[in-house]
UniProtKB/TrEMBL annotation:
Organism: Equus caballus
Gene3D superfamilies cross-referenced by the UniProt entry: 2.60.40.790, Cytochrome b5-like heme/steroid binding domain, Nucleotide-binding domain of ferredoxin-NADP reductase (FNR) module, Translation factors
EC number in record: 1.6.2.2
Residue span(s) of domain FAD-binding FR-type: 262-374
Pfam family, one: NAD_binding_1
Official protein name in the record: Cytochrome b5 reductase 4
Lineage: Eukaryota, Metazoa, Chordata, Craniata, Vertebrata
Gene: CYB5R4
Amino acid sequence: MLNVPSQSFPAPSSQQRVVAGGRSKVPLKQGRSLMDWIRLTKSGKDLTGLKGRLIEVTEEELKKHDKKDDCWICIRGFVYNVSPYMEYHPGGEDELMRAAGSDGTDLFDQVHRWVNYESMLKECLVGRMAVKPAAPKGMLPKSQATDTLAREGPSSPSYDWFQTDSLVTIVVYTKQKDITLDSVIVDHQDDSFRAETIIKDYSYLINIELSHAVQGDFSVRIVENVGKIEIVLKKKENTSWKCLGHPLENHNSLVPKKDAGLFYRQCQLISKEDVTHDTRLFCFMLPPSTHLQVPIGQHVYLKLTITDTEIVKPYTPVSDSLLSEFKEPALPNNKYIYFLIKIYPAGLFTPELDHLQIGDFVFVSNPEGNFKTSQFQELEDLFLLAAGTGFTPMVKLLNYALTNIPSLRKVKLMFFNKTEDDIIWRSHLEELTFKDKRFDVEFVLSAPISEWNGKQGHVSPALLSEFLKRSSDKSKVLICICGPTPFTEQGIKFLHELNFSKDEIHSFTA
Ligand code: FAD
Ligand code: NAP
């Protein structure tokens, strides 16, 4: 559905577009980039044809606007005239037309629920649906939500609170044993208190305007064997609270995680360090009133306002160093978040990010992604296939596997880059091969200098079959793959041809 510039990447002429398969990425005409779209929306042109009026749209009316040059789409109860946007949509006109004259919320959520369409399409807003379609997802009161989820979801969580003279403790009873510190994300901003707990593939939200002021910092404790989470807030004044506060939107609701909205908090740029000629290590500080630990293999979204439009792109947090599990981190891990980000001079988002000064802010979302550390259980051979910044999810994976999986015999990374200068953290990787005998790395270059005597070319069955040797016939294997979409798609195809099963492959995608 609607899209952001990551979908217009790679460039139409680039080899990354050559391989077919998956969602089509349609080459955009000259002058039809996201930046061009933003310029058009700022030009004052009437993009809805309604001269700035907002109207109530009936279902009958919506259905009438189902043609390319007259195309209305409803997303979460709001109707947009997307005809002017057609040529700018990196997913192509056909993708948009699938929702023409109808409610496109589900289609939109399937592809890019994180895209900030409200901001991108604000000049295309026609109005609201007169009769709301179905109740928007994620808005069910808990009683209703739990009825629906009772059959397939986790058993209903609940919460309680108690106080002493100086503390207020909020307790979440998840009724799940596998709850860890990264299962809960807490934000306390002004008087509003928000705690989202991820329980299997569901999200349980506590969202309250507190009745009294509390201090900025708080602590989070997990009582693992009973699945209890305790969030301890410090009162500003030692008075007795009569109630915890007033419920805010979606308070005490349990919804499938995919239907929960993304929550953002402002994080401050602390440092920026060159890693290669075009890739930098960014360190951001979380607010003191946030508890957020991004689970291994998951990504977050960064949001910046560029020319008055909110732009959102996904990035995968890394550790501050590939060797960080083997030494004391310079800064406490749970207060800082690190990213390895490649700057594309002609890109929309990364040059803006690169222009941030130390002390500037960026919005960081809650995590997303479907990698689970349970995939490591009893694992013997871990193979990582990364291309370019597709290396980023491998960083935490590597650290975790080498330090926490006793069954592990071998970890091998095949790292595809254009030239030697493009290899991220090459010296760390080489050092790691000395530090841990189970680890090995192979660099493959697509455009090496003539003196390069390592592997050359692109991902291929020949390269993979030589690389992916099990440590024994029946050893449990996991192959993780990440890079430009066509690289990943091709790699998966070759892995299937080499008889690796679906369960043995994990691909990182948006
Ligand atoms: P874009 O504007 O998307 O442009 C990128 C390139 O394409 C530029 O060279 C630009 O000139 C070219 N281009 C764009 N539009 C056109 C057009 N219409 N015609 C011709 N050429 C065009 N990246 C990282 O560096 N680190 C990470 O940790 C990371 N994690 C990710 C996690 C996930 C789940 C996903 C899906 C992606 C991740 N990415 C990561 C990629 C990241 O999200 C962005 O896609 C990337 O940073 C480029 O953003 P940009 O806006 O700067 O560039
Ligand atoms: P890059 O430098 O352009 O490419 C890295 C290597 O991959 C090069 O050797 C390149 O060969 C090769 N390659 C590119 N396209 C290929 C294809 N179609 N088939 C085979 N090999 C191909 O990579 P980058 O600019 O760092 O981009 C990294 C990509 O990873 C981005 O698309 C980003 O969105 C994605 N990413 C995804 C996630 C995630 O989903 N979780 C996380 C991080 C990054 P050539 O020299 O021939 O181009």
